[in-house]
Design brief:
- Strands 1, 2, 3, 4, 5 and 6 form a six-stranded mixed β-sheet that branches.
- The protein has 101 residues and is of the alpha+beta class.
- The protein has one domain: Gcn5-related N-acetyltransferase (GNAT) (Aminopeptidase, 3-Layer(aba) Sandwich).
């Protein structure tokens, strides 16, 4: 899978290819073993087709492979962690309380 991770100053962007093209991205800040997810965006042409959920799961799998914890400040991303509880272990206990995960 082609995953582009772009670093623009401290803000980073996770933008994988999905079905051969970039359909969206996730902006985040990385600090050692923690990433703070601040924004998720899907190209308007692809909204409502499940790409947002797929993007979130790809990012969670990627951050797991990097041994990182996730702080889901982005409301959509926090909702995806609630929706897929198998990723709850990526969120620290304190953050689970804060974000009701």
């Amino acid at each position: 899978m082609d995953i582009a991770v772009q670093q623009d100053s401290p803000l980073m962007r996770f933008a994988p290819l999905m079905d051969g093209c970039r359909r969206g991205f996730i902006d985040y800040y990385a600090f050692n073993h923690v990433v703070i997810i601040v924004h998720t965006e899907i190209d308007p042409r692809w909204e409502g087709k499940g790409y947002g959920s797929r993007l979130a799961r790809l990012a969670l799998d990627y951050f797991r492979s990097e041994n990182r914890h996730v702080v889901p400040v982005c409301g959509f991303f926090a909702h995806q962690v609630r929706r897929y509880p198998e990723y709850a272990d990526l969120v620290t206990l304190e953050c689970r309380r804060i974000f009701d995960l």
